[in-house]
Amino acid sequence: MARVFVYGTLKKGQPNYKHMINTAKGLAKFQGRGRTVEKYPLVIAGKYNIPYMLNIPGTGHHIAGEIYSVDEQMLQFLDEFEGCPDMYQRTLMRIQVVEWEAKGGAGEARAAADGVLECFVYSTATYPPEWVGLPYYDSYDSSGKHGLSYVLRESR
Predict the structure, then answer these.
(1) What CA–CA distance (Å, rounded) separates 155 from 79?
(2) What is the rounded end-to-end Cα distance, in angstroms, of the chain?
(3) Among residues 43, 58, 95, 106, which is most buried (max CB within 10 A)?
(4) How far is 96 from 62, CA to CA, in rounded Å?
(5) pTM over 0.85
(6) Secondary structure of the chain in the HEC alphabet?
(7) Which residue among 82, 99, 101, 108 is the active-site one?
(8) Is there a domain that residue 36 lies in?
(9) Phi, psi at residue 4, to the nearest 5°?
(10) What is the CATH number of the domain that holds 21?
(11) Is 82 a catalytic residue?
């Protein structure tokens, strides 16, 4: 099992969460909520209003998201879904646990020094330079007050 931190459309209540609970794509078990230890720019970009975490450590905000434990099948699905490695790159990042819900695994979160876990995160280092000038968010909601509604793949 691998740990994945999701901050965009794959979170609960967001447009692509259905993929996280589709066991035909693999297993993803919600573990808890967290924030990136380092600051990153989270932007909403492109004609489909897709959330991107730009891989520029030290700039932006501590990004809020959810921590999942996923099996190899789900990890492979997420790589394909996220267009890895062209659109997003899967990298290990340090995530501060904010709230831990995993059954029987609370000790694991506490065992990590200072409640920090290493999780895979889909961020991007391949983006148009003008994206750096877009507004930065600390949390993503597809129907947030930014007014930039995400366009589902099946609607593109």
Answers:
(1) 21
(2) 33
(3) 95
(4) 9
(5) yes
(6) CEEEEECCCCCCCCCCHHHHCCHHHCCEEEEEEEEECCCECEEEECCCCEEEEECCCCCCECCEEEEEEECHHHHHHHHHHCCCCCCCEEEEEEEEEEEECCCCCHHHHHHCHHHEEEEEEEEECCCCHHHHHCCCCCCCCCCCCCCCCCCCHHHC
(7) 82
(8) yes
(9) -125, 135
(10) 3.10.490.10
(11) yes
- The rounded distance, in Å, linking the Cα atoms of 118 and 28 is 17
Q: What is the pLDDT along the chain (156 residues), one digit of tens a residue?
A: 999 999 999 999 999 999 999 999 999 999 999 999 999 999 999 999 999 999 999 999 999 999 999 999 999 999 999 999 999 999 999 999 999 886 655 455 454 557 899 999 999 999 999 999 999 999 999 999 999 999 998 999
47's tokens: 């004609």
Looking at the domain assignment, is residue 152 inside a domain? Answer: no
